[in-house]
Amino acid sequence: MQQGDHQMEKEQQMQIVCVRSASTGGVAGEDWADDGSSRSALSLFKEKEEEIERKKVEVREKVFSMLGRVEEETKRLAFIRQELEVMADPTRREVEAIRKRVDKLNRQLKPLGKACLKKEKEYKMCLEAYNEKSNEKATLVNRLVELVGESERLRMKKLEELNKTIESLY
User: Fold this and answer.
1) Alpha carbon 94 to chain centroid distance?
2) The pTM of the whole model exceeds 0.85
């Protein structure tokens, strides 16, 4: 590739030299030599241009040919994909629908689960408070029963004393 570029550059330089010498009007002998070399340089340049154009056409044809094959292969792959989908599990649509419903239910269950946990926590706190108050009540009731019992004993004792005092008066 570099050698071809170098050769084209050399040919272009030769053409420039030929054009310059022709425009400056050199000596008659030089004109004839320059004229022959400029003609050969021009014909060489034209040949190279034609060769480049042919290669362009060849490359373009190859590219279009490859594109055609790629399109054909793409069509074949699309057909194969369709065939595979047809061959897939016939209940696939139903499975997909059920999966969507399960996902939807999961999304609905998540906040419900959080609410449930929150309410369970509240319930446990309320139950603790209830049990605490119940224990306190039981303690107070026991104390009340003791006090009432003691009060009754004291009153009975007083009544017996009063009764003895009254009997002693008669």
Assistant:
1) 26
2) no
